[in-house]
Amino acid sequence: MQPTGGMIMPKVNYASTMMVEDHLRKCLSKTSNKPYNPLKSKYLPKSQHSAFGDFPKEYMPKKKLGVTDIDTTLPHEQSIAATGTSKLTLHLHI
């Protein structure tokens, strides 16, 4: 049943509201220094490992532990240039 008076109210749904908000944010970002990227929204769902969902934890590749380099040079073998503790003074003669 149509309301009388010829005034028809538009349907408002969540998708159209979000599209309008994204467009307004994009327009407002043109006047500010911070660009608007809709993919950086904290409300977007996290992406999955594949199109069929996340993999089980036992099938995920194990993270390798980082290997730290061992400094094998003794303190008396290190040069001042390698440690960077020396001060450099330049004397320019013109």
Structure description:
It is a single chain. This protein has 94 residues and is mainly α. The chain has helices at residues 14-29, 80-83.
Summarize the structure.
This protein is an all-alpha fold. The chain has helices at residues 14-29, 80-83.
Task: Determine the strand fraction and express it as a percent band.
Answer: under 5%
Report the uncertain regions. Answer: none
Specify the structural class: mainly alpha
- Largest beta-sheet details: none
Shape: flat
Number of strands: 0
SSE blueprint:
Blueprint: H1 14-29, H2 80-83
Task: Give me some keywords for this one.
mainly alpha, 21% helix
